[in-house]
Amino acid sequence: MGCFEIWALWVMVTIICIHADTSEDGIQAECLGNRVQFTLPSSLSAGSHLEVYAVNNTHTVFLTPHLAAQCGYTQKLDPWGNTIVSASLQSCFAENQGDKVFKVAMQFKLYEITTLSEKVHEVFKTCSHTMISREILCEKNFMEVSVRNALPEIKMEPVKEWPTDIPNLQLWKILLYTPGEKAFQKDTLQAMGYSVYTSPTRLVMRSPFGMAENFIQNVDNVDMIVFKSVVLFRDRWIMTLVESAAACPINGASVEGQMIYWHVPLHITPLVSSEVEILEVHLGVNGRRFTLEEMVNRNYVMTITDSHIIVEIPIGAAYGNYKSHVLNEQYHVSYNIEPVLELLWKEGLDMTSYKVLFPITTPLTSSQLQVKDYTQPKQKVFDVLLGYFLPDVELLNITFVSELLTVSEIINKGILLQEHSFSNNTKAFTLQVPFSDPQVQIKNFRLDVTTYTLPLVFGFAIMPEHTTFAHSIVLEASLADIVLPQAEGSCNEDYFNMYVQYGTTPSSQIKIKLGHMELNNTILQQYQYHSNETHFDIIVPFLSPVVAFESVQLAGIMGRLDVEMYDSLNNWSFREFSLACPFFVKMSECFPNGTITVIIPKLESVPHLHPGELSLRDPACKPYDIEDYFAYFHFNVTSCGTTRKFVGDTMIYENEVTWKKDEPLPQTSENPETEYRFMVSCIYIANATQSMIFQTVSHFKEPYADVGKGELTVSLRLSKDMVYRLFYHDGDFPVVKFLKQPLYFEVGMNQSRDSRIAVVLENCWATLTEDRESKPRWDLIVDGCASPKDPEQTIILPVVADERVDIPDHFKRFEVKTFTFTEDDESSKSENATLARRVS
């Protein structure tokens, strides 16, 4: 053996190794009668692209499937991935030495794409074989007949009338029987895919299976494909013919239980014309003959009847193999074996050797895959075995819910995936996945139990065909490891502070309802909150719509915040929590000019109350503004049925906010109240003396003021309600309001403590954009008064001292009903106005 390295122009390395018989690399070559067989071990070809070439002296020919059948070659893979190439000793490219010694050479090219390398193995085998009168070979892809040509020898004295030169017979014409007779030239026949070869002593005819000129003949209930020909040889003055025929079975095998029965006709009528004498019968597998001892030890049975040779092969017998298949997306297996039957018979003086290699595949049977779940929930790891497969099955990937991972990707993620091989030539795969893996689905069918689910789809390929199939399983384990979420809270001056601890339930599954409203991203933007994977806290103003008002006293409102937590995945309610607190709210305010303002909330005890249905004693006096849960009244002490009475030096003005359902509802827990009353009182001192301190200045002196310069910070803020306790911040804008809904503005100096300074609101106007000089504009306040164009749209409100306002002169308040701009008019009602102001 010798090896040589050749560098190609594109930097591919080619290594050529020449072998005879068994090489150092393990390539085997053996003579099997009129065949030679080469075995390329899988260790050489694994991971490489293989090409097989026939070698004739210095020439190599790539063996396509069509050329291999025409020239007498077969190629297959065994279950272990070894490549087996067989050739007839009289194949197209064999070296023939006197029809007695034959040399067959092969070349195997292996291409390694990743390393751009090419390795070439050349191997040859020389076999001696004594030919008899006729030899017939039936392979899986071709049939071949080799006959002695029996051309006559001229042994006579020349006469004057005859030519004196020795005849030189040449192949003239070939007749094929289909079964009708058709004549062909040799070149034409070979172009069609047949092979015609002559030597000084032999004629070899070869036909691939499935050729148009073949025909099928039934012989003793076995269909046989027949290739029959007559070859005509001639010279100028003599002609002779050579008959040849080959017949190969295409069926005759059957399966009964766990036994294969193969019937071969004893008298193959297309090949014989009279009674024959059977001299030898041999049985083997994969081209090799069995000894009688081997047949007995492996439970092979051969029986000869008057009409057939019957071969019995147990399914699973030695030298056969199981093969994986996919049928209707399910895993199936078959048993494959290639028995060889050799007959030697005598017909007259002629001997015939008949050899048939007959691949048998049993019908597909479903192989139920087994799933063994070894999961121990307390270990929090899924542990599963999936089997059992034949060695030709490879695991390609696993789909975890929606993520497909290859085997290498799974191992790189740290997931334990293993392949296990067993002594019965099967294998299985084990997989271990922690419960904490993101692909594991977590559900709670009970509040105190967590169910872990892992859907898996295993993707397999059957080699070498690369036929893919999948098998799905769902792993499930339950574990009592739940810590339920819980809520707690506290009350501040004007808001609730709620705190929720999620427990072990994922925060993404927990939904929280405050009052009647389920929290989402849109609603949460209205509140101050903080959330992470473990807890959630939120500040809820007591005037928020989610707060239920239980009762109203002169001192304020009793508010209650209900919190409900539930599992959105399983629709389970965990627990409810309620927190009730009193909040001081100035429900009414009496102004020195005789104006009274009242804010009335909707109580939980009157669920059917609509704030717009409230009125004062005079039913015509309705709220001047309403919201979903509040009604706002603004009236004078001399209107709306307000009464007055004197008590000592005081005047007491009283009115009443009332509601009564026209059609009383039945008294139930859902309709507890059908009436609503709220008394409003204002007390004024009738006789009071106010002291004033003033100083006079001599008229002889002109008054003057010290000239000074400075900067004072003045802010314009929008209140959330008419009591000016809660204000919108920069992040709350834009604020959505309905048409004609009032906006409460406050202009003030928060930094100055000088009571000698006062804020005077001269002018205020609205524009469409933030540019205060843009057009159009609409005046709201002009020279300190409501705009004369629409005096009812803007209301100047008084400012009195309270816990927030120490110096009322530092603030100015006014109310503006929401409006919008139009193209044909300078204003109408909407929230899209930008207020610009000039404050001094």
TrEMBL record:
Keywords: Disulfide bond, Signal. This is Zona pellucida protein AX 2. Pfam families: Ig-like, Zona_pellucida, ZP-N. Residues 1-20 form the signal peptide. Residues 589-840 form the ZP domain. The lineage of its organism: Eukaryota, Metazoa, Chordata, Craniata, Vertebrata. It comes from Cyprinus carpio carpio.
